[in-house]
Specification:
Number of strands of chain A: 7
Oligomer: heterodimer
Radius of gyration of chain B: 20 Å
Helix content of chain A: 40-55%
CATH topology of one domain in chain A: Glycerol-3-phosphate (1)-acyltransferase
Pathway (chain A): Lipid metabolism
Order of helices and strands of chain B: HHHHHHHHHHH
Strand content of chain A: 5-15%
GO molecular function (chain A): 1-acylglycerol-3-phosphate O-acyltransferase activity
Structural class of chain A: alpha/beta
Largest sheet of chain B: none
Helix content of chain B: over 70%
Shape of chain A: globular
Strand order of the largest sheet of chain A: 1-7-6-2-5-3-4
CATH class of one domain in chain A: Alpha Beta
Protein name (chain A): 1-acyl-sn-glycerol-3-phosphate acyltransferase
Number of helices of chain B: 11
Shape of chain B: globular
Mean pLDDT of chain B: 90
Keywords (chain A): Acyltransferase, Transferase
Low-confidence stretches of chain B: none
Distance between the termini of chain B: 17 Å
Largest sheet of chain A: 7 strands, mixed
Pfam family, one (chain A): Acyltransferase
Mean pLDDT of chain A: 86
Low-confidence stretches of chain A: 220-231
Number of strands of chain B: 0
CATH superfamily of one domain in chain A: Glycerol-3-phosphate (1)-acyltransferase
Strand content of chain B: under 5%
Amino acid sequence: MTATVPATPSRLRRLAARLTGRALVLFVRLITAARAEWEGVGPVPHQRVYFANHVSNGDMPVIWSVLPPAIRRRTRPVAAADYWLKTRMRAFIGPEVFRCVLVDRRAEHRTEDPMTAILRALDEGASLILFPEGNRNMTADPLLPFRAGLYNIARDRPEVELVPTWIANLNAILPKGEVIPLPLICTVTFGAPVALRPGEDRAAFLARAAGELAALAPSPERLADAGEAAG
Amino acid sequence: MSPSANDVLTLAAAVVLVLSVLTLAGELLRARVTDDRAHPMIETYLTRVQSWWAMVALLGLAVLIGKSGVVALFAIASFAALREMVTYTTKTRADHLSLALAFFVVLPLQYAFVGFGMQSLFGTFIPVYAFLLLPVVSALRGAPGGFLVRVSETQWALMTAVFCLSHVPALMTLDIPGYAGRGVFLIVFFIICVQGGDLIEHGFGRRLGRVQVAPGISPKTREGIAAGIAGAALIGAALAWATPFGVAGAMAMAATASAVGMAGSLVFSAIKRDRGVKDWSHLIPGQGGFMDQLDSAIFAAPVFFHLTGQIWAV
């Protein structure tokens, strides 16, 4: 890690962060015409964890952009410290523009358990954007197996709504290794919240949550995926 | 000879008058009808009329800017339509570069050829050069799976959303004796006739129509289509003074454009049904996508362009 984040950013930095955030929202809207479909929940300021599929670096900015401004202001993405602290530019965009909750995926570098940081952010009243697969999904499967974090949140903070959030089409807009984003239409579908059932163990809960998330994929994309699998 | 300010004002006043009558009629219907079943149709009709107000405002602004404004307006419409189509076409990562070229090179170049009046390139660039070269770009990535389907669907999207649609601003480049500088009237005539026919088809056919022409694809009826084409012909006659066609010619051109436009709308309905979507997108509030608005103009534009060119231009 080469960059650090100032503990109390100056007013100028905060203003720059806000303006950069606006510009990013505009850019995402121009490229993807991103649109939210509130299927299972409404866009209300309830405390939530939006857990989403992860196929592209564009996932998090897209979800963040389609949230209504009032909700976006109190929603923080959970993101990898090793990625967002690599350069000074990223250290500005990740922690200051998106106000990421930074967690370290590499156990040997950790100074703090990721769950501690996540629960602290929830206790401060923030909603979160979480990618429970941990890494970008490069496989033909709709989802990778979920990490344990989502289960821990469901167990430790049962009052927080866990909202499955499916991002369609981003893997075609900016696949890994490509530089120019294709201007395709992207939709973000928010499903009905998933809560831990009495007596449900970790594996069963994570499998059910993944199933609820995958079920939100719109059918045209399933068609396109079938074509891609055939190819 | 440039279009006289008088003619422009007459046409603008006529358009505003017609839209005002349509809006008023819709609002009166909405106030009168209490039957729940009839309401969605009136709401659809009114949102359509509203989007026409927006289209008229945009086209009016583009005309004020001049030829470059009209070309830019249709380039933006093509971009939005292509984006909606490619969202639903078959593609893999191997097509990423060829699709990026389609959006960011082929589309701007096609409209540049229109803007600079390069007739030969305008007619051959997409059907010949893009057609032959984009599959090569995809092939160089070395992933043959579904190749013919992928390149065919990409080309189909370019042909419709870009090539066909670019024939609308290209109407300004036709060299018609005694009609120089008035090409923008042809565009307005074309749009009013095609959209007017669609509106009459929608309004009459869905309610009074009996025989569906393509059940399972579209609710269009034989009676509605006939009414729409006849209505377009009457609109054409009323606007004949703005064209080089004469009254009979204007009626025939309007009817032809409307008929081909409805055929286009039917074809795009088939694509939407196949891909399992009702609308191409939600970018136009209450309306669906750009492609839903443009589908009839896309089919009608090349036919209208070439008929005009062959019969009236030098």
